[in-house]
Amino acid sequence: MRTFIKSIVVILLLVSALIIVPPRVWVKNKKAKLTYDGRISESLKLFHGSDGRVMFMLPEQDLSGIFVYAPERGLWRCGVGSFIGLKLIALSKRNTSGCADDGSGVQMQPFTAEPQSLQFALHDVPVVVSWQAAPR
Hints:
The protein is an alpha+beta fold. The protein has 2 helices and 13 strands.
């Protein structure tokens, strides 16, 4: 009987964790390209979140932040500490869309969002981030 109760408690804890964590999980997309100042590069780390959200890092162009696009909130540059990066996934620390949810980051204006690309300027240099459809 004790083993049964312990098993039920473990299952309930796992279900609770899965309810809390999934909106904060980001899955890596290996088919992303960056056009920075007219040059094409694949030195970009791009992750897909739920509800059309996209998170990306530009390690060669900007080490100061992580960019988050949420369709309902726009494009934001969050501090590096907003996310925990792993090899194939990333996790939002507090909010589902990082700093875009609480407005603690810098909103990037103007920008253009297409179904599989974002265009904006970084340090007055045109940037295009494009990707293939999110993995399913």
